[in-house]
Amino acid sequence: MTAHRRLAVALPLAGPMLACMLAACQPTPTVPVAPAPPSPERMEFITQFRNIDTAGKGMITLDQAKAHYTEVFRRLDINRDGVLTVTEVQPLMPIMAARSAAELVARLDRNGDNKLTLAEFLVVNTWLFRLSKDPASLSRQEVEHGFAETSGPGKEPSLFGN
Question: Residue 102: exposed, middle, or buried by beta-carbon count in 10 A (0-12, 13-18, 19+)?
């Protein structure tokens, strides 16, 4: 069989083979994958951010957070004695990865009197702003999707570093 004759026989088969080869090279359509829901730890940060960002601007400042948490402290201080007890902190639960109000008070109480002063309570600003690259402002993007480089890879930060 001559080369010309072999080509004449193979050519009709080449078209479908070429079509199959080209089809295999085409990208397969991708089905959009929904992002994983935020972890419970991340949801704590998102919830607190939303509580402070009442204007919905997507950005809060440290001063706004301090004003917000000062107001929270004032509302929780039912007897107006300037300190929060375990009972007064109970409405915050669950918050900041604490399993109980007693645990939260114990972790924040710097002078060991089993009560929280406003200064001790405002540590929550430090907890929230751990997510920020800028110590004076925090964006919704940072809270929802990323953490500051200083927090390092791995687990998301919590108030207690656990």
Answer: middle
Question: Is-contact 143 45, C-beta < 8 A?
Answer: yes
Distance set, CA 9 to CA 2, 20, 69 (Å): 11, 19, 83
The 3-state DSSP class for residue 123 equals helix
Query: Whole-prediction pTM value?
Result: 0.67
Q: What is the pLDDT of residues 19-54, one digit of tens each?
A: 555 555 556 666 667 667 777 778 888 888 999 999
Distance of CA 56 to the CA centre of its chain: 17
Nearest partner of 69 among 96, 42, 43, 87, judged by Cα:
96
Angle, CA 10 vertex, CA 6 and CA 14 arms, to 5°:
155
